[in-house]
Each structure stands twice: as C-alpha cells, then as structure tokens.
Design a protein that fits this description.
single chain, 176 residues, alpha+beta, Aminopeptidase, 7-stranded mixed sheet, 10 strands, 27% strand, globular
C-alpha cells in the first residue's frame, strides 16, 4: 500500500504516558530509535503505512513508542525529518491494537507528537514541528495539539503548544 504522507491519526486523549483503555491504568513509556531488527519484525497486517519503505528513506528517522520493560511490543511509530530549523513529522501511526473503538491503549499519538516537540527543543529549534494534515482533521489538530495552519493543509506546532505537550508527556524534563 502506498503511504499517504498526510497526517490522518486522531489524537484520542492527551495522557501522562499511555493508559489502558478499559482499566485506565497508566504505563510508563519510552521512545527509542527503530532498528533494522525492529523493521524486519513488523507484521504488515498491524500497520497501515509501509514502514519498511519509510526506513529506507535516508532523510527520516523512525522512533517507536514502547512500554518500559516491554520494548518488543511497539505501541506506535513516528517518522521525523530534521529540517535544520524545525522537525517535520512524515508519518505517525498507532499499532493496530491501539486503533478504533476496541483499542488497548489510549494516548499513543499524543505521546509521539510530544516526543517530536521534545526532539525539536533538544535540537534548539524551540519545539517547532510541522506536518501535513488531511483537510478534515485540521480543526481536530488545532484543538488537540494547539497546531496552527501555515498554508493549505500544512500545520505547525509552535513553542507555546510544544511546551504544553512536552510537560504533559515528559513532566520530568528539565530543559524547559
């Protein structure tokens, strides 16, 4: 399946990490760079995007969201590109088991976007992140992420919105 590089993921809830959708229990997460071993282990049926093709894109870096002490089960993936003044989010996706009405964990997409903002802050880009949104989700991203329209369906998260996301998901981060 060809990857449509417009953002089309719903931000279900901004949490502190990720939460079990049924019990509400919270689980500590970590975000790690994806390895070739991770890519080879991905089950195509669990993902909408072709992450193997994305891994070959030398401009992008893919990160995985996992629960601490359970790094074999990838909860979500994000592909980012360093544009030398901000971070661009190419693709973002929750694992199949974290989608729809029967999802296992809530908060995966927000966690990944907050990580992109943190990466931007660490690279001295003031938390600025951009992405291309599907038209029907523009207002959703404005409300849930504080993103602003730059032009057409290209959106950006500025420093103020980035700080809110970072403090939500990474409250112990001291760089702010």
């Amino acid at each position: 399946m060809a990857a449509d590089k417009q953002f089309s993921i719903e931000i279900d809830k901004l949490t502190r990490s990720i939460e079990n959708a049924i019990s509400g229990d919270s689980f500590k997460t970590e975000i790690l760079q994806v390895t070739l071993k991770d890519i080879k282990a991905l089950k195509t049926k669990d993902w909408l995007f072709d992450w193997k093709a994305e891994y070959k894109n030398k401009l992008s870096t893919i990160y995985k969201l996992v629960i601490v002490d359970n790094s074999n089960v990838i909860q979500g993936l994000i592909s980012v590109e360093d544009r030398n003044d901000h971070i661009y989010m190419n693709l973002i996706e929750s694992n199949k088991h974290n989608k729809g009405t029967r999802k296992l964990y809530i908060g995966v997409p927000g966690n990944l976007v907050a990580f992109a903002c943190l990466l931007s802050l660490e690279k001295k880009y003031n938390g600025y992140v951009s992405f291309e949104s599907k038209t029907k989700l523009i207002s959703h991203y404005q409300k849930s992420l504080g993103a602003k329209i730059l032009f057409n369906n290209v959106m950006a998260i500025d420093r103020s919105a980035a700080i809110k996301l970072i403090t939500q998901y990474f409250p112990d981060y001291l760089y702010l």
